[in-house]
# Entry
Amino acid sequence: MTGGGGAALGLQGVGYTFAGVERPAVRDVTFDVPAGRTVAVVGPTGSGKSTLAGLLVRLVDPVDGTVLMDGLDLRRLREGQVSDSAAFVAQQAFLFDDTVRGNITLGGPFSDEEVWAALRVAAADDFVSALPQGLDTHVGERGASLSGGQRQRLALARAIVRRPRLLVLDDATSAVDPAVEARILDALRSSDSPATVVVVAYRQATIALADEVVWFERGRAVARGSHAYLLGEVPGYADLVRAYSQAEGVSA
Amino acid sequence: MTVTLPDEDRKEGALKTLRRGLRMMPEFRRGLPLTILLAVLATAGRVVVPIAVQQVLDRGIGADGGPDLDFVTWVVLACAVVVVLTAVAVYRMNLRLFRTTETALAGLRVRAFRHVHDLSAVHQQGDKRGGLVSRVTSDVDQLSQFMQWGGVLGLISFGQLLVATVVMFFYSWQLTLVVLACFVPLGIAVRWFAAKLAVVYGVVRERIGDLLAAVSESVVGASTVRAYGVRERTAERIDGAIDRHYRAAVDAQRVAVGVFVSGEFAAALANAALVVAGVYLGLAGDITAGTLVAFLFLVTLFVAPVQTASEVINEAQNAVAGFRRVLDIIDTEPDVQDPAITDPDGTHHLPAGVLGVRFEHVTFRYAPGARKALDDIDLTIAPRRRVAIVGETGSGKTTFAKLVTRLMDPVEGRVLLGSDDAGWVALPDVAFESLRARVVMVPQDGFLFDATVADNVRYGRPGIPDDAVAAAFDDLGLTDWVTGLPAGVASPVGQRGESLSAGERQLVAVARAYVADPDLLVLDEATSAVDPATEQRLTRALDTLTAGRTTLTIAHRLSTAERADEVLVVDSGHVVQRGSHAELVGVEGTYARLHASWRRASAGEPEPVGRPRP
# Structure
């Protein structure tokens, strides 16, 4: 699960339509992510980014087209093979009614050292060591005893400890400091065989961490390129990025 | 997971629990005498058939001058009339019992729910929420089932037992002793069984709570479960919970069946002994044939109650266990007490006018021995100030807000609201009603109920018409958004507001706060991104909402801090800096660092890597 470096992703004419909805959430999406690259997926609310994220880790299978990992159709992989190589962190961090350790290992064979290392990367080591029983603290039903930001950090540590070959973050860093976010991505990419990262992002800082940006609109991947390129060439992209920066208080 | 029963389960007797519970349900006692009278009639009617049989045999068929058919006819008719009257009495009694128990239990449910809400945020985190729900729903159901079926059966059984015994003694004391000799050992055994049943049923109910929690977790966390390939682990957890419940239920049934079989055994023994003894007594001329036959009938009357009694005890134990768990909730002292309840005569109002906030050496920790979430905070925020609280995750920002809204009380020190002109009042002296009317918190992801937009806004001020809701949206500059909804303010929001986007849910939450017209607002700014159009609307609406009110905002956005009159910078439970954005941004310190990091985030510059965390 750790070896082999980043996974190469390929999407070929991928489409997905939710049951009972006419308009497809994602349609005819074709692009590649070479192994070890970091790609930011940016687009307006409801443009299909979260659906796309779910398709990459096979939360759902596409209605049309195929999603390939290292050239293999995800549907042809043995059960568990996708989750062995890929980690996914959703917008809303979900914690089980278990200890901190259990929530990070999910029963996997990770030592406490590895767990602490992952917590450190996710900047969760401080608050976990301040908990009454440290790693053995029960987080309560759905992590009720933790704040939103703390839950999100634990969910990130859960992904980091696995040293995934593919990491998919669906706006999963909204409650963490950009510095922490940078460190997480840095830790995953600094080795000789860096992981592939797909990140659904809004913040400019997050986008800036990506090698490339894919611009999404109405379920389609409309444009692709560097941040600077998209700013110059795609009016919608420039508008959105500027709007979000204004919302955060500084003009782009 | 080990199951821990509340201590009281072992300490307090079943009768004491019942008495305590009944005291809490005054509705239950209303009209009880008539119900009991009906129950007496219903049970008395049951011995009519055995008596009639004896009369027909001894004085009708076996009459001295040959069978007396007129007598037989008269007895049978009289018997029929009594049986019909009995049926009517049973019907009336059941009806009355159903009505009173449902009324009483509805009252209990309301009390328990209200109490769950009074328990502070700290307590609700400790107890499992699924468990709390099961306490106020299925545990109360268990009670109503007992009161309506087991209770009725028990009442009738007891009366039947009493009447049958009296009639038996009247016919033959010797045979009565034979019957009693068979049932007394059972009476002793049943007490032992009852104690055991109380324990096993307690475990069963606890396991059901665990099971509910495990199942709901697997549903809500489905995508995490799938993404991490932990289906087996999750299935194992559920299987484990099911298996533990199954084993507890089987254990409980083992005891319950033991009770039932013992009753059956005693019954069979009594029948056999009765026939043998009856024949001997009959041959000796002590009893007539009619008496022996009547006795056999009476014994069935006697046997049935004993058998059902074991079932009733069964249910009663179950109900008492459920009752105790409901009472446990009501008994839990809320760690945040409403002074209007503890001291109903005092006046507990907040001072008039816009409210300021004062912290006097406030310290808070979430659990004894845990790190201080806030450490000796001492400050005053003047009325009408718009204050932004900033700091990293875990710095104590949210704790600050929870203390101001009194979701929790500080471990040391006190929080006061008011102003220098109108005076300051400590929060523990303020009635919840006054506090909730004047202080409103808008949480990060406000909870929306599965109702219309207008209904959800109305939670801020119950009873206002749709026009007033629409007017509120108009004041907030949100008319274009509302009219864009399929049915305007009457549009349904779906379960937990899922038909709306996160940003739109915030708009509804802001409108809800606006109609509540509070004097102090606590805003927990959402961290998740909102699309720009909604963001703009939200900013505008918030400007209107906060105008003229004291506002504490837990800020995640730079723009909020920039616009605030004052910024409080919180770090590791301390207020490390305080001042306007302009004052703080130029000074070396936590705020300048946070600000720089925000700027970089917005401007899209990469974060310097390897730099020590601020």
Observations:
- Chain B touches chain A through 62 residues (CB under 8 Å).
